[in-house]
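Consortium newsletter contribution from the modelling node. Members have asked for a concrete example of what our holo predictions look like. Here is one, prepared for the guanosine-5'-diphosphate complex that several groups have been discussing at recent meetings.
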Amino acid sequence: MLVLSGGTGTPKLLLGLKELLKPEELSIVVNTAEDLWISGNYISPDIDSVVYTLADIIDLKKMWGIKGDKTLTHDFLIAMGIEEKLQVGDKDRAVHIFRSELLRRGVKLSHATQSLAESLGVKQRVVPMTDDIVSTVVSTPEGVMHFQEFWVGRKGLPEVSSLFFAGMDAALPCQAFLDILEKEDTILIGPSNPVTSIGPILALQGVRERLQDKKVVAMSPFIVNKPVSGPAAKFMRAMGIPPNDEGVHSMLGKVDLFIVDKKSNYNGDCRRMSTLMRTKRESCKVAKELLELISLA
Ligand code: GDP
Ligand code: FO1
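And here is the predicted structure:
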């Protein structure tokens, strides 16, 4: 199975899926449109959350960073007057250095990601959506800003008039993504932000076309007309899309099996189950029920 993922909702589901599927049965293609360089290193927050989840070292409270990590370097940089936009943990920074050293030597992001995942003992295939640079840019009354500046720097507060993916026109899905698409029949769109996590993956040249002859399963990231976390509703409103399951479905396009939370008032063709994952136990329960629904469909 190929899973399309962002950095929070889908990793919560992967926490359960990894216990139920053999590593060779699970490949993950991850959004990279929230990536950025910080203090000389390339940070790919969604890839890192997926890799840390599969390596069992994710900080489960935040769903980013490494559990038990410290921020000695970040704190000392701040004390020296260097503003670091994200609070980067020390071990997390080591991962960024590992990746950035490879990138500086001309290694592609997809190959660097594979080395990184292997070095942390991850057996599943984790692949960035592209080796090219794509950045989510948010237009606000305060100006145009990178997604991380909007979400972390400005705490998601500014009004949003529009969003765009800078670099998307020239970007291609990476070869490993295309190879997996060729091989896998079932594609699972995880419960991730449909605008900023799934949107960029589906917007890459040729991806939507390649999904036409696949069994596409999607789990909504909304529960009772609200995202569990994050700015999905604000961004959907800015795009003129209703911030609910119907809006999510309309953004995803071809979906053969749409899974919504049992409390949803969505009227279209769907399957209902509890999709809330607050603990590893809930993640396993949701993953198990999801796999049952997929095998029945
Ligand atoms: P990001 O890269 O951090 O934005 O992460 P994602 O796009 O992967 O995840 C954000 C989305 O996950 C939000 O829209 C949330 O509503 C959704 N989400 C988070 N936790 C859950 C959960 O337990 N269940 C469901 N169904 N969605 C969730
Ligand atoms: N999110 C925050 O809200 N504050 C942070 O300081 C922060 C640091 C950070 C460092 C590494 C990393 O991989 C992710 C980090 N995040 C932080 C999360 C991340 O920036 C966003 O939540 C996601 O990109 C949203 O999709």
